[in-house]
Amino acid sequence: MAAYGIWGLFPLYWPLLEPAGAVEILAHRMVWSFAVVGLALLALRRWSWVRDLVRTPRRLGLIALAAALITVNWGVYIWAVNAGHVVESSLGYFINPLVSIALGVLVLKERLRPAQWAAVGVAVLAVVVLAVGYGRLPWISLVLACSFGTYGLVKKKVNIGGLESLAAETAVQFLPALGYLLWLGSQGRSTFASEGTGHAVLLAATGVITAVPLVCFGAAAIRVPLSTLGLLQYLAPVFQFLLGVLYFHEAMPPERWAGFSLVWLALTILTWDGLRTARRSREALAAAEAEAASAAEAMPAGAPASTAAPASTAVPASAAAPASSVGPAEAAPAQAVPAATAPVAAVTASVEPAPPARPGR
Fold first, then answer.
1. What is the C-alpha to C-alpha distance for residues 217 and 358, in angstroms, rounded to an integer?
2. How many Å apart are CA 210 and CA 216, to the nearest integer?
3. Which of 55, 149, 226, 235 has the highest Cβ tally under 10 A?
4. Least confident stretch, 20-34, 37-51, 339-353
5. Which ranges constitute the DSSP H helices of the chain?
6. Model confidence, pTM
7. d(C-alpha 244, C-alpha 346), whole Å
């Protein structure tokens, strides 16, 4: 809740940094985030991943791509908030799960369940309604959703920890961002030193507010069930939407309410389908465990391990983890599975969904 709450309250922070422009704020966020995350990794002595990363050109290329995508996401979000488009920005993070599903179909060739297809269809209708209401495509929402959805896909391929990943991405961003800030200062257009100490502290704190929710998210990801984590991710866009309507008093004509209602309907369908699928998987896992326990109890004393379960319970290796359920970044080394526990392993492989992507706001 702390992680998603902080991300949801970001629209209150960026206006405090004015008169700095969006690009200057973005550059400071890159520079100070690199400094904060670098100090954290130095304190934790977690540098062994750097050697493996620099020896893998493909992963370095993916890190550079991730850095470019999160730069677009951060930059558009900061500009949109300070330009009075908080509600439209919140829409981008509402539809982000639906964009991630679409990317899974288009890029990873995943197969959707009927309810997921229905959710995507309702979301497309919502975009059409909102486009009519705005008189244009809601491009801010689409850029935020597509850039962050693609960013999550790239991070899945890189497969390194949250702090480590942010350190690598901000290392790519650091020199261009620092160069821009130095150039801005040489032109006399930097606000860092000209707007007082408080303004300078707020700009430097962008590194802290970037790292703190990421640390909270990382701590939660290993303690909170994924279904709960998936539901909590909607806290951030809900907070942003409420701030846009109630605090910044942005207009919400009827057609905009209609479009948002369709988006919320799509998310309700998606959430219901996810919870139903998780429940069925748990029930299947419990049944498999009971079957394995019964087979173990029925095994005569001293019988060889191969007789621990009847032949009907044996699961081929290819069935233990369907290809569509595990991406390349998630593949684990093969391990021998006793015949009596094979049904459990087969179901377990389908129970654990990929964790929700870390918001990059």
1. 7
2. 11
3. 149
4. 339-353
5. 2-8, 10-13, 22-44, 48-54, 57-82, 86-94, 96-106, 114-134, 139-158, 162-186, 197-204, 206-221, 226-232, 235-242, 254-298, 317-320, 342-351
6. 0.76
7. 46
